[in-house]
Amino acid sequence: MRIATWNVNGLRARLDFIAHWLRSREPDVVGLQELKTTEDEFPHDDFRALGYHAVVHGQKSWNGVAVLSRTPAEAETRGLPGREDDGARLLQVRVAGLHFASVYCPNGKTLDHPDYAMKLAWFEALRAYLAGVDRDAAVVIGGDFNIVPAPLDAWEGEDADGSIFCTVEERSRYRAILELGLTDLFRHLYPDERKFSWWDYRGGAFHRGMGLRIDHLLGTAAVASRVRRVEIDREYRKKKDGNIASDHAPVFADLG
DNA sequence: ATGACGCCTTCCAGGCGA
């Protein structure tokens, strides 16, 4: 079974590109983020034609998360409890024997911006929510965390320490989530690999290797024990058939 | 120091992303 996460940066503008990826990689379950669309505007028919069901927690213009799946999924949670006003950023479904959540964590903007305090509080609420999931079950949290776990995950390495995405406050909150019994599937399989999932559109950042690893697939032990391969799909950070890519690459994992 | 690119929006300059 292939599971994935992808911040698509605008679902309607990315539809042809997403279809290309689905046909090529054939994932079974996909968490999408940054739909920038409402559920009413979500192109369910296009995904059905591609062989996917979709559960959507959308919002006009900003945020928005969804889960695509080959087999029908049942919504379990829409919105992070207590933090619904911070945007449509969490959707958990029951699908293919998994509890699968798609999360779009707040960006924070800058350390002195009100959104940074909101980001920290949001992560504390995410930890409280995840503390309630059954850690003996097969649980996957996939999404854009907007946190660089360690210097290895930033193109600037330790020079990025203390800047947004790389502060002690952010990293300690991310770590607190892992300490609930969740494993970063990519880092679990590849302890020393330096691969990124996001590159700025500007200044040729992608081709200059100036990226960050901020999109993560986390799994409980029941999932981590099954993982055979994790790919950060940088082929799909490139233009495809003239269509523009998201600034995030898809991340997928194969479970045995 | 700034802007760079691309998406969004009561349609177009400005907000936002990371």
Question: Short summary of the structure?
Answer:
With 256 residues, the protein is an alpha+beta fold.
Describe the structure in your own words.
The chain is built from 6 helices and 14 strands. The longest helix is centred in the middle third of the chain and has 17 residues, at 114-130. It starts with a strand and ends with a strand. Helix 3 (114-130) packs parallel to helix 4. The strands form 3 sheets. It has a 6-stranded mixed β-sheet. A 6-stranded mixed β-sheet has the order 5-6-7-8-12-9. Strand 6 and strand 7 form a beta hairpin. The chain has helices at residues 15-25, 44-50, 114-130, 168-178, 185-189, 221-224, and strands at 2-7, 29-33, 53-57, 65-69, 74-78, 90-95, 98-104, 139-144, 183-184, 198-199, 211-212, 215-219, 227-232, 251-255. It has a single domain (2-255), classed as Deoxyribonuclease I, Chain A. Helix content is 21%, strand content 26%. It has 256 residues and is of the alpha+beta class. It binds one DNA strand of 18 nucleotides through loops.
